[in-house]
Amino acid sequence: MNISSETNSDDTDNNVKHLLAELEQLSIDELASQWQTLTGRPAHRQNKRALNKQIAYVVQEAAWGGLASDTISRLEAVYYQSSRDSLALPTMGSSIIREWRGRTYRITVLPQGFEYGGRFYTSLSAIAREITGTRISGPAFFHLKGNAR
User: Fold this and answer.
1) Tens digits of per-residue pLDDT, 65-77?
2) pLDDT for 109-127, tens place per residue?
3) What is the pLDDT of residue 1?
């Protein structure tokens, strides 16, 4: 698979359409090899459909360019906010309080993470691990979703 940037727009469009059609005929092993060739990284063997879509994106990105940096920044912001919303976190500046083994722990919710014990953390799980000494889901430990262990 090779996308040349020196061809005209119609040739590029046809070349991409042809390459995308070829992807449908490849086995998972052939797709994994194609991914390795295009990206220089081994494929995560999820499933054929997912790998096909990932390769299709890389092919189209090579032909027509990727997303603008401001678009990437906006998508990251939306993703970050949606993942925070799905955990039902308190609003920024609020505290999460958890009593565990006779001690009370207070975590402050910050715009891009959490503060506990004077240190900044990007995840509740890192704080829960520090408190408990074990790997545990932070949202579960702080009773923000499901049940704590």
Assistant:
1) 888 888 888 887 7
2) 988 889 999 999 988 999 9
3) 54
Instruction: Please report the sign of the dihedral spanned by the C-alpha atoms of residue 54, residue 55, residue 56, residue 57.
Output: positive
Locate the DSSP E strands across the chain.
95-100, 103-110, 113-116, 119-121
The answer to whether position 119 is within a domain reads yes
Residue 80 lies in a domain: no
Residue 33 within a domain: yes
| Residue 98: strand pairing partners | 105
* CA dist list (Å): 74 to 30, 45, 123: 34, 29, 21
Region of 116 (left: φ > 0; alpha: ψ -120 to 50; beta: rest) is: beta
Helix or strand holding residue 36 (H, E): helix 28-39
Domain count along the chain = 2
- Same domain for 21 and 60, yes or no, is yes
The answer to whether position 112 is within a domain reads: yes
> Tell me, what amino acid is at 10?
D
- Distance (Å, whole) CA 109 – CA 95: 6
Structural domain boundaries enclosing 21 = 9-64
